Amino acid sequence: xxxxxxxxxxxxxxxxxxxxxxxxxxxxxxxxxxxxxxxxxxxxxxxxxxxxxxxxxxxxxxxxxxxxxxxxxxxxxxxxxxxxxxxxxxxxxxxxxxxxxxxxxxxxxxxxxxxxxxxxxxxxxxxxxxxxxxxxxxxxxxxxxxxxxxxxxxxxxxxxxxxxxxxxxxxxxxxxxxxxxxxxxxxxxxxxxxxxxxxxxxxxxxxxxxxxxxxxxxxxxxxxxxxxxxxxxxxxxxxxxxxxxxxxxxxxxxxxxxxxxxxxxxxxxxxxxxxxxxxxxxxxxxxxxxxxxxxxxxxxxxxxxxxxxxxxxxxxxxxxxxxxxxxxxxxxxxxxxxxxxxxxxxxxxxxxxxxxxxxxxxxxxxxxxxxxxxxxxxxxxxxxxxxxxxxxxxxxxxx
Length: 399
Fold this sequence. Notes:
The structure is a single chain. By secondary structure, the protein is an alpha+beta fold. It is 32% helix and 37% strand. The protein has four helices and 22 strands. The chain has helices at residues 57-108, 117-175, 227-232, 375-383, and strands spanning 3-19, 22-26, 32-38, 43-45, 50-55, 177-179, 184-188, 203-205, 209-214, 219-226, 238-243, 246-258, 263-264, 272-279, 282-283, 292-309, 314-316, 319-326, 329-340, 344-349, 367-372, 397-398. A hairpin with a 7-residue loop joins strand 13 and strand 14 (272-279).
């Protein structure tokens, strides 16, 4: 017997809960080494907690070598300063000795008037020689001071470069201990080479993801639909989620978007799956990322309508008909089907509640009459299918 009830065309697809916003923690810049420690999957970490420790032997060697170079450069600078100070002291002593000799020669010059012509010329030449020697020493001293400053500056710049190098290496060594930038649930990232989650002993390098920390406050569900399922799903379809790990919990959302290209189920397979993204708008409790979800997609819903089994609807000369029981015989009745699922169909015109219909096509000898819908009713549903929300049982025309 035909009854009125709510129609719902639902599709069930498996999905996985993912965070809308995640914090990815990468292997630090200029680092290549071996993981000696990494936090266990599902560990709740606080900001500043250690997530991973990496061993980089090349970095340790570079740091040791740079430290030795700095010590050598500092020692060489001290040696240069001592050598230059010694040379300066010797030249300054020569200057003082020359000044003393010049003073003595100047005193002797008072006696020039008592000397012979040759002796006077010799004494004057000695004075000139002392002046020339003084000028040479002073010039050499000035030059030495310039050389002194240049040499020291060169070594100081060299030391500064070594210090900068060591500071950078120190920062890189510090970065080998990777700490959490935020609080949250830490999960190990997939290694690009192995295709498995990172473990101790794996080789890692710059920009390789190590840890993923999802934002627990906002999640979504990623569905992997078959091609036939994908074609039936549309953005805006409402969703109801249940979870194997939390059987008593429900969540609700809607389809946000569908990917345009499918991916093979496995390498070389012609069977593809399509990714569908859906929101989680409300949930009874906080849903953690990584949890599997049973996703009930509500493709179409109609309240308080006439629903019949799909097998009770037949094609007859390009129209849809049902066979209504009239005492011991049947009447072929034209109907309008506006919604259907794999099991049921919504009859929006041509059938009333409480009538009985056949699930199998009756023998022709048992069909005593035929009734068809007026063209105005057919046109109404062709122009405005939304009228299906109100079931009509119009006056039928006899054949």
